[in-house]
Design a protein that fits this description.
GO terms for molecular function: aminopeptidase activity; metal ion binding. By secondary structure, this protein is an alpha/beta fold. Helices cover about 30% and strands about 25% of the residues. The chain has 2 domains: about 1-115 and about 135-210, Rossmann fold (3-Layer(aba) Sandwich), CATH 3.40.50; about 220-270, 2-Layer Sandwich (Gyrase A, domain 2), CATH 3.30.1360.130. It has helices at about 25-50, 135-145, 155-165, 190-205, 225-235, 255-270; strands at about 1-5, 55-60, 75-80, 100-105, 120-125, 130, 150-155, 170-180, 180-185, 220-225, 240, 245-250. The protein binds zinc ion (ZN). Zinc ion binds near residues 9 and 10.
């Protein structure tokens, strides 16, 4: 059995604010990297005990070189570094039996520890009219390859967001959000136990979880904070810019093209001048 792990940082055990996820912030970032590696290792250990034979870990935060390679479980392979065509989902294909999203966070515009979607420039993003965050975009990529996302870890609120999109998904809740930069965290030991327990449950029940499939062509809608960002995003050929809502639309042939277009639009939008 093959397992794909996409590991972000904001939803990792013990992480509550940007001092843990920003490389320039010193000692807490170094601790955050250790916490991230520990969470991944807990999942890997439980997965191996549950019959998984091959594990790919995609480091999926910022420049994607956060996990401590030398401390990662020896049975896992680490995909590190960027850029990557498929970003947080690079390497997934039909050969995987299941995917898990570790250390994930809620989408932009709602509560949750370090909630955002990809970058700060976008307000809401929609796939076929449904508002989604990073969880939804990445689940759509897994779904395109017929791979179910069977487990998510993070705070109590990403658990809700994930269950809305994927009924029955296992949720390893390692902290309870108090504000966007505060949380009540389980102890290291309890968080590890929760991650292991939910990993085992998820793999046992994996056949009951449907891949998150999107109708094609996929309509991507990106609602920006201001017109300057939307104008930049609308440079992408084939887009339609709705000025009244600062929303740029694009019809993609499949989720992969949608994802790449979304990233191109975000990069362009972040170059907008004046805020
Ligand atoms: Zn992140």
């Amino acid at each position: 059995m093959k397992l794909f792990l996409s590991v972000d940082m904001e939803g990792i055990s013990g992480i509550v604010d940007t001092s843990y996820i920003n490389p320039s912030s010193g000692v807490n970032y170094q601790r955050g990297r250790q916490f991230m590696t520990d969470d991944a290792n807990a999942v890997i250990e439980a997965a191996l005990e549950s019959g998984v034979t091959e594990i790919v870990v995609a480091d999926s935060h910022n420049t994607m070189n956060n996990i401590l390679w030398e401390k990662l479980h020896p049975k896992a392979r680490l995909l590190a570094g960027s850029p990557r065509d498929s970003s947080m989902m690079q390497g997934i294909d039909e050969s995987f039996d299941a995917a898990m999203f570790i250390g994930y966070h809620t989408r932009q515009g709602i509560p949750g520890v370090l909630s955002h979607t990809m970058s700060g420039v976008v307000h809401n993003m929609y796939i076929n009219g449904q508002v989604v965050g990073e969880f939804g975009f990445n689940a759509a990529i897994a779904g395109m390859h017929n791979v179910p996302v069977v487990m998510v870890s993070g705070d109590n609120l990403i658990a809700v967001e994930a269950q809305e999109l994927i009924p029955g998904i296992q949720t390893a809740i390692v902290k309870e959000a108090v504000s966007r930069t505060a949380a009540i965290c389980l102890s290291r030991e309890e968080a590890t136990a929760e991650l292991k327990r939910k990993t085992a449950n998820a793999l046992r029940n994996r056949n009951n979880i449907q891949p998150f499939r999107t109708a094609v062509p996929v309509e991507l809608a990106m609602e920006f904070s201001h017109a300057g960002q939307a104008e930049m995003a609308a440079i992408v050929p084939g887009t339609r810019y709705e000025t009244a809502t600062n929303t740029v639309y694009y019809n993609a042939a499949n989720p992969q093209d949608m994802y790449k277009t979304m990233r191109a639009m975000l990069n362009l939008a972040s170059g907008a001048e004046f805020f």
